[in-house]
Specification:
By secondary structure, the chain is mostly beta strands. The protein has three helices and 16 strands. The protein has one domain. The longest helix is centred in the middle third of the chain and has 23 residues.
């Protein structure tokens, strides 16, 4: 996917397409791209930033941007749980969830493809064994067709040459989109760490130990005059925190809340202080044993801030687990009907 600045970003796109009834009709899809270059353009000539006081924040932002520009999700199967939450006019909450096994077809460098999703449970109730077996067999056939289709696609040109110097990514930030369509009206909200790094000013708030690793915690504020895409304009009304792992120099958490003037709390509830308010957007990454950082939680909260987003009045939460790396050999892409990835 190519940004307005000409960078190629290797992203996962999560689509929650809701039609008419926001929760019960939710669907999810996954689109992934395989890097065409060993070193992404955004990592070219990037060097380690100084994190001694005073921290070189502009250099650290460039490094953190690079470190999350990988394509590692193209090599993993995983479990994704998608939760939808909405409120009616009386403030009553409705919540539904769907859990998927996600399988990625083997992709050539410079190409993209669709993940194959298998529903394993709905609202915590497992899918019947015979139905799940049938769905997994169908998923296997879909994977085979996707691999065959990908083999015929023309790869995109490499962004950088084989001898270019720069950093290698250590993880993969995603680009998540929640969409809504109802009675001729539609809305969309997108969430990407890369957008926050490009468009916000960071100020060091503190250093903390998190899960045994030193973490640099920055306050962020959007830069005045930044032109956001329509489904990212809400960012101009946010403040919050961006956490960066001091060793791996990658964003591990993003927490965004509306400024007090932009908040839209329910009139039936007491107005919370800013720090007590639920986040409007939230991203959390996890470090795998291999040292790779991949998503753990992605949250877009239109249920508590229905006027903040473009037509999104429900909350979408995606959680990721059970990452398992698979072989890149086409003959090894299989669906196991007896176990999860």
């Amino acid at each position: 996917m190519r940004s307005n600045h000409g960078f190629t970003l290797f992203t996962l796109i999560l689509l929650t397409a809701l039609c008419c009834q926001p929760i019960s009709a939710q669907k999810a899809s996954v689109t992934l791209s395989k890097a065409a270059s060993r070193i992404p353009k955004v990592c070219e000539a990037v060097v380690p930033a100084s994190i001694d006081d005073p921290i070189d924040i502009p250099a650290l932002v460039k490094e953190a941007y690079c470190k999350g520009a990988g394509d590692m999700l193209t090599e993993y199967t995983y479990v994704m749980t998608s939760v939808g939450r909405s409120k009616d006019k009386k403030g009553q909450t409705k919540q539904e969830s769907t859990t998927y096994e996600v399988f990625i077809p083997t992709l050539k460098s410079g190409t993209r493809g669709q993940g194959v999703l298998v529903v394993t449970s709905r609202n915590g109730v497992p899918v019947r064994g015979d139905e799940l077996e049938k769905t997994r067999l169908d998923a296997g056939r879909r994977l085979e067709k996707a691999v065959e289709k990908n083999a015929t696609e023309k790869p995109s040109a490499p962004e950088t040459g084989p001898d270019v110097k720069g950093m290698s990514p250590l993880g993969m930030y995603t680009h998540s989109t929640t969409n809504h369509s109802s009675f001729g009206k539609s809305g969309s909200a997108a969430l990407a760490i890369h957008t926050f790094l490009k468009s916000c000013e960071l100020t060091l708030a503190r250093r903390e130990q998190h899960e045994g690793r030193e973490t640099l915690i920055f306050n962020f504020t959007p830069r005045p005059g930044v032109q956001f895409a329509d489904n990212e304009k809400y960012i101009a009304q946010l403040t919050g925190e961006i956490w960066i792992d001091s060793q791996d120099r990658i964003v591990t958490r993003l927490i965004g809340r509306p400024t007090l003037s932009a908040s839209n709390p329910s009139m039936s509830e007491p107005i919370p202080t800013h720090d007590d308010a639920p986040p409007a957007v939230y991203v959390e990454m996890m470090r795998l044993p291999q040292g790779i950082w991949l998503p753990r939680v992605i949250r877009i909260n239109g249920a508590d801030y229905e006027k903040l987003f473009d037509g999104i009045s429900f909350e979408s939460i995606s959680t990721f687990s059970n990452y398992a790396r698979f072989s890149t050999e086409v003959t090894d892409v299989k669906i196991n009907s007896d176990s999860k990835p």
